[in-house]
Design a protein that fits this description.
By secondary structure, this protein is mainly β. Helices cover about 0% and strands about 40% of the residues. It is globular, with a radius of gyration of 33 Å. About 55% of the residues are buried. The N terminus is likely disordered.
Length: about 1100
């Protein structure tokens, strides 16, 4: 298990400012400490310290979600949008890709991003939050820049907030001149209603318009009138206050204050001339008129404050020297001394800009109430544009919302007051990533990327193009190695010869292909692995008929026949299939036309119609398998071109759904969506849009956060602007997805593939792009947790070229020696020889009631844990099994996984058999000459020679999950063998097998006909968790034990509460089964059998258990 990388929390000084829109943030207090002020001049963003303490959060560190994809952010507003008493905030942007407006909802663990406007709009700086329609909640108002003439308002849908649902947008203005930099609401004409005041720079005017009585039905708003005709189009900044004490609200902006004469009449009075001025108003010196502060916004100059001396405004320079682009200016009581202070933030522009301002300052000027200010620097190197001061976390003091304009965008920074000595709550492990570059200079473009343990060392290696990269483990250098000429583009990674190691199918470079198209080719070869990563290349494969591959899928679509399905980039009317012979080295691989239809892109395999055989997903079309003949069905009709796709059950209903990323060849956005499968998959599927991003043409799915449901990773093929390409992960919560950005800076094409590269139990991402030659690795670092430390991922160093030379291409002259193959007939131990007893078979008929409800007296309990650590003085790894003696309350080592080659694996489920052998299921792939490649959906049988501190013995394959419908990658996380030889199984996540659809709170029973390498049998539902109160996400069954007497013992992935008993992941739940199957019942109700905290488990989670 990993801990998060070091965080950036230092003592800061700073302050925040209230907005002058009519929103009350409350009276705020500051927390004081003592520290010296520091300054950084190296051009990098750094947090500094003085007087007040601050905690810095940033999208750079995934502390909160990114606002969108735009690199020009213009709007920042703060207010209580959801009326929960805590401020939320709004961010607006004006360049593609959208969304144009998002808002951040404060919750218990941080902020959740909600979309208000998905379109790309030409927004301008200086919007407002105001209750436009008078329904009690805040709506959003914003205008356009010099490219358009609109002002809009967006109706707050409270209380119906949804993360990806647009707010209703209506016009306020849609004619006349362009650009509306700054606007505000207030009562400016003595009538009961509110007015909107706005600068219209294109018209060189300050204008006012009444809010209509029925704004929902009034578009645009009529009868705007002039407050002021400006001398030029560079006037901006707005504030409001009763400047002269006559009881009327005056307007301040553009270097003037506008006296409210009554009605809608105003008179302009000069404060100090100048263009692009930001303005704020407040009583900095008690008594007299409020003071006015002006700062150069889109210019450099002096920030000044102005005090009325009875006859004129007297200007005073603020003691901060030359201000560079001080576009953020606010006034507020930052340190809680009942005196108003000043906040100024300078702009920083994108790196390389001639006006970059790498030392842009975040400043607070603390007032003594007599016109003197003490300057404090919160941070340097952070860009500010319309940054705000408000209580962002609801703790009663003022915080800073930092929004840059173009620097490092998309980006947000937050400084929370009084939070310097704490680490923020980690919103999700999927928010924490570290980027590694495996190869900076891959020789040429690669089409696909995949991973597999090629050299048998237990670590996943990377395969892409003509190369594989050996995983050096905790330290060392990634090394690029050629697979073997003439293989030019890897197409599929699979154990084609069934010898327990992974081989590679690929294509040869097309003769005469242009140098800029090294991916072309339809001639096939395959590379046989000797188990060490040394390959012999064979050309006994029929050629294809296409330009280059875009989809490949290996499967057995007809019993006994292994096929490789092929989707060509330029063939929309044909999909081909390669038949893999029983002896792939000696016999010819033959090709045929498999179906007269293709969508020329990705292929995914799964039993879509739940009839027991594998179907194919092409995109928005899926092919029904009818004994190797294919019937086409359209799941969703659209004119957009589907690109990448995957099959998975996203909503836990037991049916395979689809996720599709659509194609774009520029920097415009398009949807990433999942499609909910109906009960009859031949009917139309329901589209659920996940996000709108740039060309999501890299895609994969998997349980990335270990919570039992399927998450999504997607990378952008940002061809027009590859340096702005992003990669995202979407965390699943019952079919609703939360977006987290993994990284920005590379485009992705047919990349973003999931794998556990560092053997730490979570999924990392490998990726490639079309426009660059890097091989990328994104390591999931996870939330901070104890115990456990991260397994180091090798950092990039120049890739060495191995001195060994690949073996020569060609068909061998002799036939390879046959490897030992398990027989299809299992041993007597494996095969049930009689009819299963009632205990072993699910039934809705009640089981005979126990004569006593007392907990049975057991000899020993056996456990495996999710994390390595210690229990008392006993050191335990996650590949070990410990024995607990209830008579003495002590633990001892029963099975040492390291001794038998499992040091990089994890025992996910086990069962101790009466004959002393162990049944084991592992979290990761296991490979040995005796067993071949064993997946997490399989079960091993371990026959011990010795156990304990010096474990030894041998492994054999006991149960092959893929033979009986368990999808590749499905994890068996709970296992018990019943007396008749049937297997009681829990899976990590919901499961669909022939005849049964079950949730992760259920147990399924497999009744075998044969076991071993050719497993067969039937499935049935044995235990239905919902019947006994298991329903929460954390109540995924994670460990199973069963006694002949009818007692069932369970552990959970997290906390559980059945209604009458509760516990955690280190506790054991007991149920005496009164009935099984659909009518599952416990009599008496479930109870707590064993509490781990009472025996020193602390926070350890029980991964598997066995009760004797």
């Amino acid at each position: 298990m990993k801990t998060a990388k070091s965080r950036r929390y230092m003592l800061l000084i700073g302050g925040l400012v209230l907005s002058f829109i009519p929103i009350v943030f409350g009276v705020l207090l500051a927390i004081a400490s003592s520290s010296e002020s520091l300054t950084s001049n190296n051009g990098s963003a750094s947090t500094l310290s003085s007087e007040l303490s601050w905690g810095h959060l940033s999208t750079e560190f995934n502390d909160l979600p990114l606002p969108g994809g735009s690199n020009q952010q213009v709007v920042a507003l703060v207010g209580d949008i959801d009326l929960d008493g805590v401020n939320d905030f709004v961010i607006g942007a004006r360049r593609a890709p959208g969304p144009a407006l998002v808002w951040y909802r404060r919750d218990a663990i941080g902020w959740t991003r909600y979309v208000a406007e998905t379109d790309t709009l030409q927004l301008e700086a200086g919007g407002a939050l105001f209750d436009v329609d008078g329904d009690g909640d805040l709506d959003i108002v914003a205008g356009t820049n010099n490219q358009a003439n609109q002002i809009w308002w967006w109706e707050n849908p409270h209380p119906n907030h949804a993360p990806n649902t647009n707010w209703t947008r209506r016009f306020i203005k849609n004619t006349g001149a362009t650009k509306h930099h700054d606007l505000m609401f207030g009562n400016f004409d003595d009538d009961p209603g509110a007015e909107l005041v706005y600068w219209n720079q294109g018209a060189k005017a300050l204008l006012i318009v009444d809010v209509p009585a029925n704004p929902r039905n009034t578009q645009p708003w009529p009868n705007s009138s002039f407050v002021y005709n400006a001398p030029d189009n560079r006037r901006e900044g707005l504030a409001q206050a009763d400047i002269d004490g006559d009881g009327k609200t005056d307007i301040i902006g553009g270097g003037y204050w506008f006296k409210h004469n009554g009605g809608s009449s105003f008179t302009a009075h000069l404060v100090e001339g100048g263009v692009f001025k930001r303005v704020a108003v407040g009583q900095l010196v008690p008594g007299g008129r409020p003071e006015i502060v002006q700062s150069p916004g889109d210019a450099d100059g002096t920030a000044r404050w102005f005090q009325w001396d009875g006859s004129a405004w007297v200007g005073n320079d603020l003691p901060i020297g030359q201000v560079r682009q001080g576009h953020s200016l606010e006034i507020a009581d930052i340190n809680g001394d009942d005196l108003l202070d000043i906040f100024i933030g300078e702009m920083r522009f994108e790196d390389g800009s001639p006006n970059n301002n790498v030392n842009a300052r975040t400043l607070i000027l603390l007032s003594d109430g007599a016109g003197n200010f003490t300057t404090r620097t919160v941070a340097t190197g952070f860009g500010h544009h319309e940054s705000r001061v408000a209580d962002l976390d609801g703790d009663g003091d003022l915080d800073i919302l930092g929004k840059p304009y173009t620097w490092d965008t998309p980006r947000l920074d937050i400084w929370l007051q009084g939070e310097s000595d704490v680490t923020p709550t980690c919103e999700s492990p999927l928010a924490m990533w570290q980027t590694h570059v495996v190869d900076t200079a891959r020789p040429y473009r690669a089409v696909f990327i995949d991973t597999a343990d090629l050299d048998g060392d237990g670590l996943e290696d990377i395969v892409t193009g003509a190369w594989w990269y050996r995983n050096p483990g905790a330290s060392g250098t990634w090394q690029r190695r050629e697979i073997g000429a003439p293989l030019n583009q890897m197409a599929a990674v699979f154990d084609f010869d069934d010898d327990g190691d992974v081989d590679i199918l690929g294509t040869v470079l097309e003769a005469g292909a242009p140098s800029e198209q090294p991916h072309r080719g339809d001639v096939f070869v395959w590379a046989r692995n000797d188990g060490t990563g040394t390959f012999q290349v064979f050309d006994n494969v029929d050629g294809g008929d296409g330009d280059f591959l875009q989809g490949v899928a290996v499967g057995s679509f007809v019993p006994g026949v292994r096929e490789v399905m092929l989707s060509w980039h330029n063939r929309s009317n044909m999909m081909q299939s390669l038949s893999v012979p029983a002896d792939p080295a000696a016999a010819q691989w033959t090709i045929r036309t498999a179906a007269p239809i293709s969508q020329s892109e990705d292929l995914s395999v799964g039993d879509i119609d739940r009839d027991g055989d594998d179907d194919l997903l092409l995109g928005t079309i899926w092919l029904e398998n009818n004994g190797g003949n294919w019937g086409a069905h359209t799941l969703f009709t659209t004119t957009d071109k589907p690109d990448r796709n995957r099959l998975a059950d996203f909503n836990g209903d037991g049916r395979l759904d689809a996720v599709i990323g659509y194609e774009k060849t520029d920097s415009s956005t398009i949807r990433l969506a999942w499609y909910e499968a109906p009960a009859n998959p031949m009917q139309p599927w329901t589209e659920r849009v996940i996000s709108t991003i740039v060309a999501p043409m890299s895609l994969d799915v998997g349980d990335m956060d270990g919570d039992g449901d399927i998450d999504i990773v997607a990378g952008e093929h940002n061809k027009s602007n590859p340096s702005q390409g992003r990669i995202f992960v979407y965390e699943n919560d019952g079919g609703t997805f939360q977006e987290f950005r993994i990284d920005i800076g590379d485009e992705h094409h047919d990349g973003a593939q999931l794998t556990d590269i560092d053997n730490d139990g979570d999924l990392d991402v490998v990726s490639i792009g079309w426009m660059h030659n890097r091989v990328l690795l994104y390591e999931q670092t996870g939330c901070p947790q104890e115990p456990g430390t991260p397994t180091p991922v090798p950092t990039n160093t120049p890739i060495g070229v191995p001195t060994d030379t690949p073996t020569a291409t060609g068909v061998p002259t002799d036939t390879p020696t046959a490897t030992d193959t398990p027989t299809d007939t299992p041993t007597a131990t494996d095969t049930p020889t009689d009819t299963p007893t009632a205990t072993g078979m699910p039934t809705d008929t009640p089981i005979a009631t126990a004569t006593s409800t007392t907990t049975p007296s057991n000899d020993f309990y056996y456990f495996s844990f999710t994390l390595s650590g210690t229990i008392g003085d006993l050191a335990v790894d996650d590949e070990d099994i410990v024995r607990f003696d209830p008579a003495t309350g002590t633990f001892s080592l029963f099975f040492d996984g390291t001794d038998v080659g499992l040091s990089t694996n994890n025992v996910d489920a086990f069962h101790l058999r009466p004959d002393g052998t162990l049944l084991l299921s592992l979290t990761k792939t296991y490979n040995s000459p005796e067993t071949g490649k064993v997946q997490s959906s399989d079960i091993l049988r371990f026959t011990p020679v010795s156990l304990g501190e010096n474990t030894s013995g041998s492994f054999n394959l006991h149960f092959d999950g893929s033979d009986v419908g368990l999808l590749s990658g499905m994890k068996i996380d709970g296992l018990a063998e019943l007396p008749d030889g049937s297997l009681l199984i829990s899976t990590h996540g919901n499961v669909v097998v022939p005849g049964v659809a079950a949730t992760d709170k259920d147990l399924v029973l497999f009744s075998p006909t044969t076991l071993g390498a050719n497993t067969s049998g039937t499935w049935s539902l044995y235990f239905q968790g919902a019947n006994v109160g298991l329903s929460a996400k954390s109540e995924d069954i994670d460990g199973v034990a069963m006694l002949e007497s009818g007692f069932l013992y369970l552990t959970m992935l997290g906390n559980f509460n059945t209604g009458n008993v509760s516990g955690g992941a280190g506790d054991v739940l007991e149920c005496f089964l009164a009935a099984t199957g659909q009518g599952t019942a416990c009599s008496p109700p479930p109870s707590l059998f064993w509490q781990g905290s009472s025996y020193g488990l602390g926070g350890k989670k029980i991964d598997a258990l066995h009760i004797e």
